[in-house]
Amino acid sequence: MAVLNEEQSMLRDAAKSWTQEKSPVTAFRKMRDSGVEIGFDASAWTEMAEMGWAGVIIPEEFGGSDFGYLSMGLILEELGRTLTASPLLASGLGAASALVLGGTSAQKSEWLPKIAEGTAIGALAVDEGAHHAPEKVALAATKSGAGYSLSGTKTFVLEGLAANVLIVSARTSGKPGDKDGITLFVVPADAKGISRKRLALADSRGGANITFDKVEVGADAVLGEADKGYPVLEKVLDRARAGISAEMLGAAVQAFETTLDYLKVRVQFGQVIGSFQALQHRAAKMFTDLELARSAVEAALTAIDNDSPDVPELVSLAKAKMGDVFHVVSNEMVQMHGGIGMTDAHDAGFYLKRARACEAAYGSQSYHRDRYARIQGY
Amino acid sequence: MADFGGSDLEALRSEARTWIEANFPAELKGRPNPMMREERSTPSAAQEAWRKAMGEKGWGVPTWPAQYGGGGLSAAEGRVIQQELGRAGAYNPIGGMGVMMFGPTLLEYGTEAQKQEHIPKIVKGEVQWCQGFSEPGAGSDLAALSTKCEDKGDHFLINGQKIWTSGAQFADWCFCLVRTDTSKKHEGISFVLFTMHQPGVEVRPIPLIAGNSPFCETFFTDARAEKKDLVGPLNGGWTIAKRLLQHERGGLSGGGGGFGGGRGLVELAKHYVGVDDQGRIADPDLRTRITALEIEGRSFQQTAVRAMLESKGNSGPSAATSIMKNAGTQWMQARHEITLEIMGHQGLGWEGEDFTAEELGAVRGWLGGKAFTIYGGSQEVQSNIISKRILGLPDLTQHT
What we know:
Chain A has eleven helices and ten strands. Chain A has helices at about 5-20, 25-35, 40-50, 70-80, 90-100, 105-115, 230-265, 275-305, 310-335, 350-360, 365-375; strands at about 120-125, 140-145, 145-160, 165-170, 180-190, 195-200, 205-215, 220-225, 265-270, 270. In chain A, helix 7 packs parallel to helix 9. The radius of gyration of chain A is 21 Å and the shape is globular. Chain B has about 400 residues and is α+β, with helices and mostly antiparallel strands. Chain B has eleven helices and eight strands. In chain B, strand 2 (about 150) and strand 3 (about 155-165) form a beta hairpin. In chain B, helix 1 packs across helix 3 (about 75-85), helix 4 runs antiparallel to helix 6 (about 235-250) and helix 7 packs parallel to helix 9. Chain B is globular, with a radius of gyration of 23 Å.
């Protein structure tokens, strides 16, 4: 655990006690069983917003606390432990980052205070296929009067169904795959021509496909500069990637600790199975990898707070490492629990499903290994 | 990283710079540390002069207490000395097992008289030490050691055999674990010191797969240790041994980076394998595995930094420390393996002009590196320690 300042320690402790008391894994189970379409518990989200968590990276002048990304990561880590599903990542980190980094003052004034108080939910509408590929934007934004007309489809938008405002990457010139010619737009989710389809995903969270059919927006909807949206998008995505890595860290640590507890109580052959060296050494390996992954995740969040030039490589490093580790730990959770781990009544399946969903989000391990190598010039 | 305070450190820095300039022989600039070589040639006059100067100054062990000849500096000040040596292209001539393992342990457990006798000679680089721990029948299960030590009234008599004794052929003194009570396992072990220059000590270097002999078999036949050279209580050696192994493991995890000082994997791969039209390493499978290894190595370095910051912070000792030996040594071995793969057939040369020094070094490094996960507590022993001490899983072997 990183060395924390006083406000960070308080934030982490508050997040820990709230998730343990108010949002244990049973709450996630209840949410899933209820079949609620948005994929999170709205009343829990209200409580989280009341504690100020949605505004942690938002400047004070727009209603936030401006505590920074490591602080946000501490909260996401605790939420990850109990698999708490909430729009904090998509809205309080993703959409908020886009507005803070690239928004006009009018866009900031309109949306940031509402995002900070949790009354508006933002989402990043970036990908258009089965794999994360932020430069492969086909959704077209064509000039229309003084503004633009948007047509195309965004896929797997996290919290896309609940969102009030979308940060949309669109193509204003060039072709899919070009980094030039991408423009970011701030679009109210209830704009005419937008239709949203809920996706029923294995991890039970609120993903949606969003279709834009001649959605008319003004020139003032452009976030940043027309055709030059990609550099800002990369910065926004790096923040989302670091944030989801923090959530993955919490979930992986809890998956490991739950498994470790089981090794200490499950008796076979007259002894607890945790006394078997074959399992002990796999546990020691997981612990080792979790420590390495924690270092990578905290280093990425800290680099963002320091506005360090190596944020892109540190974020790809963290997402790749964390993805590998969560993958193994979630598999081992099922394997070491044996048959009980295969049952829906046990939590192991939730961690397994969350792991794969998080791995795919904002770039899988192979995406980030490739990106890390490119950044390093090979 | 934040440094610790300004002007005092800067004064020391300027003092160190001036002193190194005045005392470090120019002909040694950039030369490798002769201590790091396995064959010991007679030191040159310049090498001797540099050792003596550093020995007198105490800066070879900057943080050891000044009363025994050490530098008496804080950790932050010690880093300044290290940085200034590096800047001047000067190696630290004071090293070996005395510095890395025995000295810190004796400072903690030795009597005043023992410290007065042994520490200054380590500080000055006058006496080299070797470690008499492992035996043919006591490797990972070190406490099974059987080298016998009998009380002969005014002295001890030692009979038995040690193995994997690093540098025994160059050592003047041995710190040794011996059995003083056969009725108990851990509580029958004592920690004694004796000179290697005596008739009862025989040393045979062991040729290894890498073609060198850094370790020896060491035989004791009625070897003598003085009563005053028992460290800690009789039968109380195991506690001291465990502490010493912590010093050893801390030193063995490598700390990442600076690996052999050679070219990085990426540079090697670009040279041996080539690049595609986008500048990527031409073999995509190799590129992926190199990247995974680079990420692994960097996360290890990040963990070393984190463990250091955490141990300085107020959160108590860092759990990260326990994983360093396995994580570091496995990463280094994997790096050796992939280096050979990158070099292809050129990475399999044993000797001769058909191969570059880098290629020959890669082969020897790969073979020698197999020891990393065996010595200083094998990776399996480290995994046992993590399982039991950190994770609280049941201990079936006890005391590992």
